[in-house]
Design brief:
The chain is α/β, with parallel strands linked by helices. Helices cover about 30% and strands about 20% of the residues. The chain is built from 9 helices and 11 strands. The strands form 2 sheets. The chain has a 6-stranded mixed β-sheet. Helix 1 links the parallel strand 1 and strand 2.
């Protein structure tokens, strides 16, 4: 990780990885402004492509980060701390698909099958596997998880049962369409294809029921900053939180009355407890963190 220096007073400019969403549009368009913080939006168009350089090289001072990537970064002592600001969240039940041409499958039927996922450490995959395990009784150890990419954290070793595709292989969505995988966990780019259907029936209704059952939402990306910035410039940290919140307020309201973008530790506490639990169960992290451990004295009180 590169050494980062921030001025002890006055305005700062932060190298920032932040994708275009309705909730970030006002900030990125300059409609939400700050005299204290300027953002150099130098990350890639798809934020997840910046996660690896953020945790391996310290390529960004601040930005969105998948919660599983953050948890693993904390395990390996990377100088990052969370702000209680969700940048992206969504239902997850619709993200596991099957090739209907291979025959009908129900969730329990994927035991003994090969299921593709971009990376075993992908946050969407962790949510989906947790849902399959706890809601549908799937024994995750009996599934072969076929991965196209390596983990964001170079220090992490995948558990047994993971199959890594050779370099140059087609991505898992293509392998699913070709019938070379029994199913796949995909994110935003769900194929509109008659050969493919969701593994979980009526996924929207199932996801809505899950949210009510757990009083939680499946959060994907939160905002993280370099710990040196938080230690030296709590004024800057508070200002980052303010502009993120103002930009979120400028976005259209979410559907179904569900807040997928909670701000503040307490509104997101149950969601974080669940993903930490799933991460431990799936051997993504070696121990269970307390939610308050993910924040520091400056960020923990934001939004309170």
């Amino acid at each position: 990780m590169m050494t980062i220096a921030f001025p002890n007073a006055g305005p700062v400019t932060l190298r920032t990885n932040l994708q275009d969403y309705p909730q970030t549009r006002a900030l990125k368009a300059g409609e939400v402004r700050s005299d204290l913080v300027s953002f150099d939006f130098s990350g890639p168009k798809s934020a997840f492509e910046g996660f690896k350089p953020m945790v391996r090289e310290g390529a960004f001072d601040a930005g969105e980060l998948a919660i599983i990537t953050f948890l693993q970064a904390k395990v390996y002592g990377k100088p990052l701390v969370l702000l209680p600001a969700v940048i992206m969240g969504r239902f997850q039940h619709q993200c596991i698909l099957m090739n209907a041409a291979l025959g009908a499958l129900h969730p329990k039927d994927i035991e003994g099958k090969r299921i593709g996922v971009r990376s075993y450490t992908q946050t969407t995959g962790a949510w989906v596997r947790g849902i399959l395990s706890h809601e549908y009784g799937v024994d995750l150890s009996r599934v072969t998880w076929v991965c196209h990419e390596d983990p964001h954290l170079a220090e992490y070793t995948e558990p047994p049962g993971i199959e890594r595709l050779p370099p140059g292989s087609p991505k898992v969505d293509q392998l699913l369409l070709e019938g070379k995988l029994d199913g796949a966990i995909l994110g935003n780019d769900l194929p509109n294809e008659p050969r493919v259907r969701t593994l979980i029936e009526n996924p929207r209704e199932a996801a809505t029921a899950w949210v009510k059952k757990y009083d939680a939402t499946p959060v994907n990306h939160l905002f993280a900053i370099n710990t040196v910035l938080s230690e030296r410039r709590p004024d800057v940290v508070r200002e980052i939180f303010r502009v993120l919140l103002e930009s979120r307020k400028a976005a259209p309201p979410g559907k179904d009355g569900i807040d997928f973008l909670p701000f503040g530790v307490e509104p997101m506490r149950r969601s974080l407890e669940l993903i930490i639990q799933y991460a431990v169960e799936q051997k993504l992290i070696p121990r269970r963190f307390e939610v308050d451990e993910l924040f520091d004295d400056t960020t923990r009180v934001l939004g309170a």
